[in-house]
Design brief:
alpha+beta; Thiol Ester Dehydrase, Chain A; 2 strands; hydrolase; Thioesterase domain-containing protein; signal; HotDog_dom_sf; fatty acyl-CoA hydrolase activity
Length: 83
Amino acid sequence: MTLILTQFFTTIITTHSICLQVRVLSGGGGTCKCALHVGEEHQNRGGTLHGGLTCTLVDAVSTWALMATEEPVAGVSVDLSVS
C-alpha cells in the first residue's frame, strides 16, 4: 500500500472500522478490499445484514478506495441508493 494509504488506514478510519468491525485486507491503485464478519449487531430482524449497514459499508469502503491512490481524491456522497 502507498504511504498515504497506510497513514489513512492507521488514523482516520480506525474509529469507523471499530464501529463497523471492518478489516481492511488490502488497498492501492484505487481499490480497497475489506472483510466483515456479520454478527448479531449487524443484522436486521430477519437475521441478515441490515440495509442501513450495507449502505454505510458501500459509502465507507468506496471512499477508502478513492483514498487508495497516488493522489488521494476526497469526495462527499450526495446520492446513494441501496436495495
